[in-house]
Design a protein that fits this description.
Elements lengths: L1 H4 L5 H25 L10 H20 L2 H33 L18 H31 L4 H8 L5 H41 L2 E7 L9 E2 L9 E2 L6 E3 L2 E10 L2
Antiparallel strand pairs: 1-2, 1-5, 3-4, 4-5
Length: 261
């Protein structure tokens, strides 16, 4: 064969083919010689050998399968493998679904998250705040009027303090006290409705009606935005501007909130 490669073209290819043919012919003759030689291994003996080996292996497999301890271990292992595979497959399906369907939901942050709260409570809180501001303006007017009733002369002002207040001054003081009472009542109503709206947001985040996204710890430590697990809202709370939340060693920043799909 080596000598054939030394022959120049076009005879090189013919020589390689010829020597290959002679090698195969030699192998066939050797096999035929062994098949007709007694007391040596024959190809004809290969079939029964494989059959006997297959029966032995099958018998051992059956014996192992009938062992109850091994059955239990095998079933547990199969359950773990199938469970892990199904969970991994579900996660991959969810990831593909999330990336294939565009998310056109409005994601709100800071005080705008109250657009997702119970609007009856939000309206009550806003009305109370507006009424409180209205009563505060009324109080400012009453204070100006009361100031105008006081004598401008210093001596007369001191003398007036020692005398009973005039009926007009008494009326202004009464109206001022009433304005203070109304302002305090509206502030309490605002705080109560506002707290109720915030608790409504927490409840919707916990039960999955709302979803929130954010970064774990800080942007430098966790550059990838994740969806905050609903169960975490049982222990974490918003900060004052509703852009961060923390509790029990967990902290999220850059939070946005949207309705669940």
């Amino acid at each position: 064969m080596v000598s054939a490669y030394a022959i120049p073209d076009p005879w090189r290819k013919r020589a390689v083919v010829g020597f290959s043919f002679l090698g195969l012919l030699n192998l066939a003759l050797i096999i035929l010689t062994y098949e007709n030689t007694p007391d040596v291994p024959h190809f004809a003996d290969l079939g029964p050998f494989i059959w006997r080996g297959s029966i032995t292996i099958w018998a051992r497999i059956v014996a192992v399968a009938e062992n109850h301890i091994l059955q239990t271990v095998a079933a547990a292992a199969a359950g773990v493998v199938l469970g892990s595979a199904s969970h991994f497959g579900y996660q991959k399906w969810q990831a593909r679904r999330a990336t294939s369907v565009p998310d056109n939901r409005p994601w709100l942050t800071s005080y705008r998250i109250f657009d997702l709260a119970d609007q009856g409570l939000v309206k009550t809180a806003r009305n109370a705040k507006d009424k409180s501001a209205e009563f505060e303006r009324e109080l400012e007017v009453l204070q100006i009027q009361r100031e105008n009733l006081r004598p401008k002369d210093a001596f007369k002002a001191i003398t007036a303090l020692q005398e009973p207040p005039s009926p007009a001054m008494v009326e202004l003081q009464k109206r001022e006290s009433e304005a203070y009472r109304k302002i305090e009542a509206q502030r309490r109503q605002h705080a109560s409705a506002y707290a109720g709206a915030l608790e409504d947001i927490y409840e919707k985040l916990r039960n999955g009606h709302l979803v929130a996204k954010g970064f774990v710890g800080s942007l430098s430590n966790s550059p990838n935005e994740i969806e905050i697990p609903a169960a975490h809202w049982r222990v974490i709370k918003f900060n004052n501007d509703y852009t961060e939340a923390k509790g029990q060693g967990m902290e999220y920043v850059g939070i946005t909130v949207a309705k669940a799909k």
